[in-house]
Amino acid sequence: MTTTADRILDSAQTLVQVRGYNGFSYADISAELSITKPSIHHHFPTKAALAEALIVRYRERFAAARKEVDDGAADPRQRLVGYAGLYAETFAQGGRICLCGVFAVDAESLPVQVRQATDAFFADQREWVAGVLAEAGMPATRTSAAAEAYLASLEGALLLARAHGQPDGAADQDRDVVRSVAATLVTALL
Amino acid sequence: MTTTADRILDSAQTLVQVRGYNGFSYADISAELSITKPSIHHHFPTKAALAEALIVRYRERFAAARKEVDDGAADPRQRLVGYAGLYAETFAQGGRICLCGVFAVDAESLPVQVRQATDAFFADQREWVAGVLAEAGMPATRTSAAAEAYLASLEGALLLARAHGQPDGAADQDRDVVRSVAATLVTALL
DNA sequence: GTCTATACCAGGATAGAC
DNA sequence: GTCTATCCTGGTATAGAC
Predict the structure, then answer these.
(1) What is the pLDDT of residues A85-101, one digit of tens each?
(2) Which segments in chain B show pLDDT lower than 70?
(3) CB contact under 8 A, A101 and B105
(4) pLDDT (tens digit, 9 = 90+) per residue, B151-184?
């Protein structure tokens, strides 16, 4: 069962990840779901409230997906590669980039709570990556900076993949760019 | 001597780098420069034309700044670190991020020429970084992927720094994040 | 090259019926 | 929970005077 609120969030999330927060409107969701704008306002009174709901759900889902990777991987190296796969698969779905990457760029347009949640998302990722790096034997003095670098390279790889999306059919190749960047980092860091 | 067109470009570039392409309007430039909106249209008939002028100038200026680094650095390592400094300094100026990073995120809202120029900008950077890495002794089979990773980490570091910009006065610390990420990459890759 | 005035449409949001 | 109708504002752009 999918509620209307969920369908709105699905549509909105894709729109944000593809066009940016200021690049879509309620009219776009309305057209996609064949529902009127006031109906959307009924579920999410303001666009800011919609953004807040989006990031809350995104963090939950991302945490769950990361746990899948955590449980399915045999060693730290595999965990880091599998984690990068989450980003690569995001891009493979219609050239989307990380929701929080978009929110970071559009931070000025967003309410404080969303900005804080975005920051918290990255802090959470940093902490997890640092833990995996420690598990892989990296000295504690280096894990923090290395985790930041790994995270930055993944978010940046999505940007580069997006920029490269000129010839429309090349999304597969661009997804590999994300994986390739991650592989380079894992090899170099460990 | 600064022409009106230049002043418009200056204002617009800052606005794009801080708010995103869809996050500002001619009214913002109008207010900042104490000039009317039609005057801006006189110099740049459409917002798309303004974006095109922006990226043309950005590429020229970035190339010049990179040449400064190229000429001033003694060895490849210093060149890479100095290059990262260009990104760090961008962020230090009011929390700006790379214009092309923003244009990559907002690509769907931009005309084809701007998208192509954004892609070309990144291709240019990739090529330059790859050349420096080769100069540093990296085998030719690895330079391409490593350059992509370095570039991604710099663009991503700007995103993370922006997201972290919660407490307003901490811009200095965030600029160091960019430099720290770059240092981690240089050490790990070479 | 800059202005006033204005057109036009879209975005975000509300009132109130069903 | 969804609709029709409507409001207000702001964004992009043009016409035409100075």
Answers:
(1) 999 999 999 999 999 99
(2) 166-170
(3) yes
(4) 999 999 999 999 998 666 667 788 799 999 999 9
CB-closest option in B148, B162, B180 to A181: B148
Name all domains of chain B by residue range, CATH numbers in brackets.
59-189 (1.10.357.10)
Residues 59-88 in A having a C-beta less than 7 A from any atom of strand D are none
The answer to whether B27 CB is within 7 Å of strand D is yes
Six-digit token pair at B107? 């690509």
pLDDT for A175 equals: 79
Residues engaging strand C (CB under 7 angstroms): A 25-28, 37-38, 41, 45-48; B 4, 34-39, 42-43
A148 near B160, Cβ under 8 Å? Answer: yes
Q: pTM of the predicted model, to two decimals? A: 0.97
Measured between CB atoms, does B165 come within 8 Å of chain A?
yes
pLDDT of residue A168: 63
* Percent helix, strand and coil across chain A, each to the nearest 5: 85, 0, 15
